[in-house]
Design brief:
The protein is mainly beta. It has no helices and 31 strands. The protein has a five-stranded antiparallel sheet, with no helix packed on it. A four-stranded antiparallel sheet has the order 5-6-7-8, with no helix packed on it.
Length: 337
């Protein structure tokens, strides 16, 4: 493991107007870390500052990790797995995720950070993939039936499974579940059009639309029920969005063509990355008032991405230094306001 702390002071009070978005200065303190020397990709950061995410080895195999607040790393190794494709926090002290077996079929798993893990599949599934979990031990994800159709699922902490199929959906893809059991995701209708959905803890659905022709949608959600994510328009440009709890849908696009949203915290702050089709990419924090702070790891000229943000505003992400040094390193940044 490698740790190094770097401070970066932005000039306070400077305001730049870029594509209609105010970029305010802020003091930022960065800490870098590596769960694997080849690639470290954070996925979630909890209120204490623990980070869960993926590694990518020299042999191009995905693994999982948890970084504790003291900087120690615990690797996630599911027995019989050839790769750990996704991992996130679940009930206190536990993780949940997806792994692939030697036949490249995907399965779900959950358990204590250091194991042992319980593996599971939706009944009749050719593939089961977890996309989110909450502190009650509920997990959501997708599963493929024998005809090759994708459905959503909700699995309780005790292992019971509820199939999730949004009204009018040909495929349903849950992306997140919050503490109260609300599920957010995307479904595709019979005409191939993608829509967003919210499912309440009692099973009722609320659907919403993206701009005409949109595709490639990704969603995240916080405990109040705000949904944030990205969608791609017909000109192949990704835009960020926020759907507020009152149903208001707001799109936003940062300079440089592509705006990719990765996470939203309980206060409505959003993190992600933006830039052209080809790098360099910059990270960003979008405040609840719509103003934006740029995130650039000191010395990184290729990529900085804000991957996740917790309740206190601490952000975790990854960066690449240059075209001659494309290793993904993890980072934590504080002091972003």
């Amino acid at each position: 493991m490698k740790t190094k702390t770097t401070s970066r002071i932005r000039i306070l009070g400077v305001i730049a107007l870029l594509a209609g978005i105010n970029i305010f200065a802020a003091a930022q303190t960065y800490t870098t870390f590596d769960a694997d020397p080849h690639a470290t990709l954070p996925h979630r950061i909890d209120s204490s500052g623990r980070i869960v995410g993926n590694t990518f080895s020299a042999s191009q195999v995905y693994g999982g990790f948890v970084r504790n607040t003291d900087g120690s790393i615990v690797l996630i190794n599911v027995p019989a797995a050839i790769s750990t494709d996704f991992v996130t926090f679940s009930i206190s002290g536990q993780v949940a995720g997806t792994y692939s077996d030697s036949s490249y079929a995907q399965h779900g798993f959950s358990g204590p950070v250091g194991g042992p893990y319980t593996t599971f599949d939706v009944a009749g599934a050719k593939s089961t993939s977890v996309s989110g979990a909450n502190s009650a031990g509920q997990t959501v994800g997708i599963w493929m039936d024998s005809a090759g159709t994708w459905h959503g699922f909700l699995r309780s902490a005790t292992g019971s499974v509820t199939n999730l199929n949004a009204p009018g959906a040909s495929t349903t893809t849950p992306g997140a579940i919050n503490t109260s059991g609300q599920v957010a995701g995307v479904f595709t209708d019979a005409s191939g059009v993608q829509h967003g959905f919210l499912r309440s803890s009692t099973g009722s659905y609320t659907t919403f639309n993206f701009p005409t022709g949109s595709s490639g949608v990704f969603v995240s959600m916080n405990d109040p029920g705000q949904v944030a994510g990205s969608y791609r328009t017909t000109d192949a440009v990704y835009h960020g969005f926020l759907r507020d709890t009152n149903g208001t849908f707001t799109s936003f696009t940062l300079p440089g063509t592509q705006t990719l949203v990765n996470d939203i915290n309980q206060g409505g702050s959003i993190v992600g990355q933006y830039g052209p089709y080809r790098k360099p990419h910059h990270g960003f924090l979008r405040r609840p008032d719509g103003t934006t702070v740029i995130l650039d790891y000191p010395g990184a000229t290729l990529t900085t991405s804000g991957d996740c943000i917790n309740q206190t505003g601490t952000i975790a992400g990854h960066y690449q230094i240059s075209t001659t040094n494309t290793v993904d390193h993890g980072f934590i940044v504080t002091g972003v306001h």
